[in-house]
Specification:
With 494 residues, the protein is α/β, with parallel strands linked by helices. It has 2 domains: 14-295, P-loop containing nucleotide triphosphate hydrolases (Rossmann fold); 301-474, Nucleotidyltransferase, domain 5. It has 15 helices and 21 strands. The chain has helices spanning 14-17, 32-41, 48-57, 83-97, 110-124, 182-188, 217-227, 250-256, 266-275, 279-285, 301-306, 358-368, 407-421, 431-438, 461-474; strands at 20-22, 29-30, 59-60, 72-76, 102-107, 133-137, 143-147, 152-157, 171-174, 202-207, 234-238, 316-324, 330-338, 344-353, 373-377, 383-386, 389-392, 400-402, 425-427, 440-445, 448-453. The chain has a 9-stranded mixed beta sheet, with helices on both faces. A 6-stranded mixed beta sheet has the order 18-15-12-13-14-19. A two-stranded antiparallel sheet has the order 2-3. A hairpin with a 4-residue loop joins strand 7 and strand 8. The termini are far apart.
Length: 494
Amino acid sequence: MAPKSLTEVSSPRLSEVARHWVYPKGIATTVWPRVEAKCAEFGVSFDAWQQGIGILALGKRRDGKYAATVGGVVLSIARQTGKTFLVGMMMIALCVLFPNLTVLWTAHRTRTSSMTFQTLQGMVRRKKIWPHVRAVRSTNGEQEIRFKNGSVIMFGAREAGFGRGFDAVDVEVFDEAQILTEKALEDMVPATNASKQESGALLFFMGTPPRPSDPGSEFTNRRMKALSGKAKNMVYIEFSADDNADPDDREQWAKANPSYPSRTPLESMERMREQLTDDDSFKREALGIWDAIDSHRVIDEESWNRQADAASMPLLRVSLGIDVAPDRRMAAVGLASQRADGRWHIEVDDHRKGVDWVIPWVKARTEKNQLHSVVVDELSGLVERRRDRNYLIGTDVLVTLAAAEGRDMAIASAKFFDSVMDGSLFHTDQPQMNVALSVASKRPLAGGWAWNRKDETSDITPVVATTLALWGSQNDNVKRPTRRSEGRRAVMLS
């Protein structure tokens, strides 16, 4: 539904309704007046707060470059607010104004991408826009709107690999940005480096606050950077209710959604409230409320500290776990064992920079002790296949592989979490583990979850290594690292 004219609706300014609005210094001009004038030709007008977003998003420095061409435009806006209409009309107007403009509109899910394509397809079929359109394609998995001046908007889902292999892209819209991985950005962002627009390329990130189970670190990090004052080249705009809002307080509904009740009718909000029975879900989706930063810890400090036991000692089924950071700057060897009381023990056996030290360290441990297992992340690059068995490279240490993208890692993570929460797992309160847990989050995997880094600088190798070690210690279906020898003890030697 098209917005009503400004004479019909008295709408608040952006500064009156946004909880946070951050923008680069040095904005000298903006493309927004041209976009707004073109939309007026199409019979479309905008509320004052929408105009405010457009002015900032399309702001330019004195050199003619978009002020947000580096940091992007980040919109944390609740559902049913009209962000798709606003950004969609902005993209349509830009495509008409600037020949040969290439826009990629990507969502996490295919269903969302298809729904957005249908929405924008309806928008361009308006009587005064349609003459600018050459074709709308929706066959063979290719969904796109092509304009007569050579501009195009293409739609696709990140889960289906959309975005790889493109070049000379001028605008990228990341819908459902609360579900956005570093890998997806690696696939898509480089395509904007070859933009031929004099003003530079633009990236839009728009979504709702991520759930704890979402891979939302990219969206979260952008918000934290903006609110910390460190964002010098980013536009960040957030609409949200008060953190302690009553989900049934309609005044809070209006705080979170500047389109309510004039454009978002009461029944739409009531429908979301009725269907989203979990208060936290409603607060995120309908009220735009972000979880407290500390709540993103997978294991809260109180539960973790409760299981600290400086006197805890390994005894039986001693296992090692090995994890290497993706950039290979850090690696960790974790240890797990059953204690004398039948409960479980974990500790960081060693944690250092680089990777070269890992194999000699583990080999020395297996020579001194009879281990139950050595478990290695299959992506570690430390394993070679010989005689249909897996060994640490250059050694006779037989290892058990944990599939990085399979059920093993999801099961291991769940067992680690459950063992802490039910009080059956103890640790020795090592600083490496405490720090690693503070920067660890979750990523969905195989119907469960696995450990994930909050950002690319976070080191969680101690957590992953001890998780793998615990999984190996509790598992009977593992490979014994060396031949059993009489007289060897299970306790790890120093």
